[in-house]
């Protein structure tokens, strides 16, 4: 659907937790960019590989629409949006090509510190706040729990204190944010790290060769790191 391109386009987070490690990893693959003033589009200098700097949430859609060929995004975002697409009757449009070994976190269920936690069935009839409705709904279905999913785009941890929800489902790395809000993690729904995402379909010839070369270099760079 996008106009034919002979350059490869990679979407990464403009700013945030994945922004610097994504740039560093791509630089270690031999890529370099001329920075434009607004920094949303960076023209590749050493190779015909350009960068698009965006919000992480936009990356799966950009790949699905063919605007970008590859993206560096959390597996949590990719899987959540895939679940939302399926729920809307849309086909899977992107897939994980490589796990990148940074941005580790988990999607956890957390309840008020005072609760005595026994099993997920305790959540029956409760309200759970999250920004990950598809992943949470899938877990609730797997556990046979019937709870109300309260969709919040941010500040999920404060929802119980505000009376918007009884429990939450949110990303956790150290757990410090949960503790600061008198919550404790009781179950892990999903383990995440940053991944390189690409389309489910194969690339056309010119971009296919570029993508293969980039993946070979990436595999080399990832081997050195681990
Ligand atoms: P954007 O403005 O791009 O939408 P954001 O606020 O959604 O930014 P960040 O907080 O930078 O995004 O998180 C980006 C990704 O980093 C997450 O989707 C997740 O994969 C990963 N991550 C690692 N640790 C954490 C954590 N403790 N909390 C949130 N995300 C984390
Ligand atoms: Zn985001």
UniProtKB/TrEMBL annotation:
ATP phosphoribosyltransferase catalytic domain mapped to chain residues:
55-218
Report the main location listed first in the record: cytoplasm
Please summarize the record's notes on activators and inhibitors of this protein.
Feedback inhibited by histidine.
**Any one GO biological process:** L-histidine biosynthetic process
Q: Does the keyword ATP-binding apply?
A: yes
Establish whether keyword Cell membrane is in the entry.
no
- State the compartments where it is located: Cytoplasm
Which EC class is this protein assigned?
transferase
Report which reactions are catalysed by this protein. 1-(5-phospho-beta-D-ribosyl)-ATP + diphosphate = 5-phospho-alpha-D-ribose 1-diphosphate + ATP
Q: Name one GO molecular function term.
A: magnesium ion binding
Question: What this chain does, per the record?
Answer: Catalyzes the condensation of ATP and 5-phosphoribose 1-diphosphate to form N'-(5'-phosphoribosyl)-ATP (PR-ATP). Has a crucial role in the pathway because the rate of histidine biosynthesis seems to be controlled primarily by regulation of HisG enzymatic activity.
Q: Which family does it belong to?
A: Belongs to the ATP phosphoribosyltransferase family. Long subfamily.
- What is the recorded name of this protein? ATP phosphoribosyltransferase
- In which organism is this protein found? Lysobacter spongiicola DSM 21749
Its ancestry begins with: Bacteria, Pseudomonadati, Pseudomonadota, Gammaproteobacteria, Lysobacterales
Q: Which residues of the full protein are shown?
A: 5 to 230 of 303
């Amino acid at each position: 659907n996008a106009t034919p391109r002979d350059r490869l386009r990679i979407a990464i987070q403009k700013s945030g937790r994945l922004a610097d490690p994504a740039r560093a990893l791509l630089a270690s693959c031999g890529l370099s960019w001329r920075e434009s003033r607004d920094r949303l589009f960076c023209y590749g200098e050493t190779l015909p590989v350009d960068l698009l700097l965006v919000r992480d949430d936009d990356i799966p859609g950009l790949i699905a629409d063919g605007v970008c060929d590859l993206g560096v995004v959390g597996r949590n975002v990719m899987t959540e949006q895939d679940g939302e697409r399926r729920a809307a009757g849309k086909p899977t449009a992107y897939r994980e090509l490589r796990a990148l070994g940074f941005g580790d976190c988990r999607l956890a269920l957390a309840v008020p510190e005072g609760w005595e936690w026994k099993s997920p069935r305790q959540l029956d009839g409760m309200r759970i706040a999250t920004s990950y409705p598809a992943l949470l709904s899938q877990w609730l279905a797997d556990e046979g729990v019937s709870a109300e999913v309260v969709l919040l785009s941010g500040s999920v941890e404060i929802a119980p204190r505000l009376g918007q929800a009884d429990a939450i489902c949110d990303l956790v790395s150290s757990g410090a944010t949960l503790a600061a809000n008198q919550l404790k993690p009781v179950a892990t729904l999903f383990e995440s790290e940053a991944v390189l995402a690409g389309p489910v379909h194969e690339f056309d010839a010119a971009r296919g060769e570029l993508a293969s070369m980039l993946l070979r270099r990436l595999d080399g760079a990832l081997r050195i790191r681990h």
